[in-house]
Fold each of these.
Amino acid sequence: MIVMKFGGSSVANAERIRAMADIVKSQLNRKPVLVLSAMGDTTDHLLDAAEKALKTGPHTVEQSLEIITDIHLCALKALGLSNSVPEDIKSLLSDLASLLAGISLIRELTGKTRDFLVSFGERLSVRIAAMYFKSIGINGQACDAWDIGFITDSNFTGAELLDECRLTVPAKIEPLLQAGILPVVTGFIAKNQAGDITTLGRGGSDLTATFIASACGAEEVQVWKDVDGIMSYDPRIVKSAKPISHVTYEEASELAYFGAQVLHPRAMLPCCKTGTPVIVKNSYNPAAPGTIISAALDSSAAPVRALTSRRNVTLVDIVSARMLGASGFLGEVFSAFARHKISVDMVATSEVSVSVTLDSSNELSLIKKELSQIASIDIKTKKAIVSIICNIEKSSWILERAFAVCAKLGVQVQMISQGASKVNISFVVNDTQAKDLVCGLHKEFFEHANTTL
Ligand code: ASP
Ligand code: MG
């Protein structure tokens, strides 16, 4: 069996649902389990509707509801399914209207209500898709994730799947496949043990898919998106960016942490555990090979896999003679960051100093005051992190070339770190120079004939 996951833009309207069905049809012999997101931007529209209901009351709900209803009813119509809109779709839409009216009256949106609200998106999309499959002679069956064994804790808006799902999910899926059914499963949502609807966090349908694949021993999981796979850099900035054919789970996690459009690292975990390959494909261009994410790379792969960057970063230099030969100093520094709930990204230390990078949105006046008692603190804003995701065994070769690019462009590197995960080398530079540096590095590592050792 395989798992095929289609994100919001891959099921955004009738045309995309037809394209999705064509892709599925061509692989029916592999016994697919489908996982779908809400159609298009439905999740955002639902949250937006709730926001309006909270702020401005009942009269604005109508408008938002219309947008959401239109997305679904228009798709049904264009798919030729509107002659008999089934009761379950009608009742979902009317429950949604009541819920939004309720939110606008009580003006309160708890995590539990929020999860219940966004669940309508995935519940509607799988029903419409399953109906379409039936209309073209494929035995699709809409499945709410809780009906196929997805149980979570009660951490609304970011729930964790319980361990027992590794047994409950295959126990429900296998009989469906044996009966020749194409399960069309809601991504992103589940229920807790009390029967309340929960969600796995934004973008959580990737996790639904990788979890099913891993628990059921699937051959692979295909994640269908609207890009040709994982790219060497953001194609909006570097026009010559190209899809990467193969990365490891570790590299893909590193890319995701730096904000590249990949899978959430949490979604990679189940497949990483069982070694199930994840293939990122483009539903708008199914012929493109996509990117394979798996445990090991073949040794002939180019040493540099991709570049990423994070803009608008703050660099904090903490210098103290007390650090020399002392123990516990770093502990004091980091527990101060923890107390102030500030997340530290990159770290570099020397005998008497430690430099860290932080997101620029952090308010630093209090921690500065506190740390000033034990060290001298220098805060430098408007920095950027540029990272090279690479095979670290080739780091000397990579660093030599990267520094030559920096020297040529007059970019001064202010901090450098070779990630402990051993798949990235990161530089801190002035934010104003980040774009030039990325373009220069991209040329060096991806646009020359000389990109392999
Ligand atoms: N529909 C949800 C979201 O937009 C889950 C997903 O698409 O993965 O976050
Ligand atoms: Mg989405």
Amino acid sequence: MSAAASLGRAGRIVLKIGSALLVDRQTGLRRDWLETLVADVAAIASSGRDVLVVSSGAIALGRKVLGLPHGALKLEESQAAAAVGQIALAHAYGELLGAHGLTAGQILLTLGDTEERRRYLNARATVGTLLSLGAIPVINENDTVATTEIRYGDNDRLAARVATMMSADLLVLLSDIDGLYTAPPASDPTARHIETVAAITPEIEAMAGGAASIFSRGGMKTKIDAGKIATAAGASMIITRGDRMHPLAAIERGERATLFRPTANPVTARKRWIAGHLNTAGRLVVDAGAVRALRSGKSLLPAGVRVVHGEFGRGDTIIVADEEGREVARGLVAYDAAEARAVAGLRSAEIEAALGYEPRAAMIHRDDLVMERHGSAGGVATPPTRAEARIDEPLAAEPRTAQEENHAG
Ligand code: GLU
């Protein structure tokens, strides 16, 4: 499949836009260009598909507005610049998307929002709600509070994490180079452009060079890192030039790009992640009606839960068993054990009274469930629904940087 076909088919797309595309050092925000990008986004959204924008540019824009000097900034200066730039950026997206009748919703993430499961579920729920309400999430790192130790650092990897968190089909990295080459094209006349990468092998990584690669400002290395995260979770990735007008339409008409194919079957990736949890934290015994609902691809609602065993937190992996004690499914629970006990057997209307706040609809959302078959972990008893086929990443199996290792929850 070509990059054009991949973009044409993807139902959920994460689009990463680099600072250099958005901000001109002399003149500030490149509004004319952004208008054409937003028009492309609007065209995709109008075909009923989801687009999430991961936009850099806060620091670059803020330093221009504040008149900070060129060159490296102190951490506090870049945080101050981000505070100023982000508001301008958000305003521009809000206005330009608004001109197409679209609503922008700003999400500022810190590393822990994707690395810690409970925060991850919260972030995913918020972004998912925005999408279901028809808004376009505009996402950036929360640079004003993220210090060196706790940051993604680059929006390539942030975008990959968002793509996996939201089960996107495709991650598009708009860059200043039209894809991956066998060698640095500026200095090596024999460098060949690579159209498709079936798997990110050590040879491919070697082509990307080190962090200070001349391939692009963000560096091809961070893009390959992003590719590893995205493709391992079942998403494709496209790298192409973003500096022309209507950069997404350019991909669709077949301008040069590199397409990275997903390495894992997305269903398998997610099922493996959930089914692969060795330490389940608890067990829910559910009635026969709930078992039938689960087998037909539905979420587990509190009403069907008879007994809650164990002490678990929100987002922990727990077992769902029938009244004979047979394991029916495993999943990530949306309530902690105390809440689960409080709402077990209750219908939605009764839950608010019991908890004192609005209930989360499902005890385990179907996106977070893996059915058991013949008692063997990881089996899928029902054909995957569309929701199940939108898979997110196997967190535990993902390549992690040393920084993530240190700071993951
Ligand atoms: N979050 C940074 C900003 O908005 C950009 C990080 C990056 O370009 O990778 O300025």
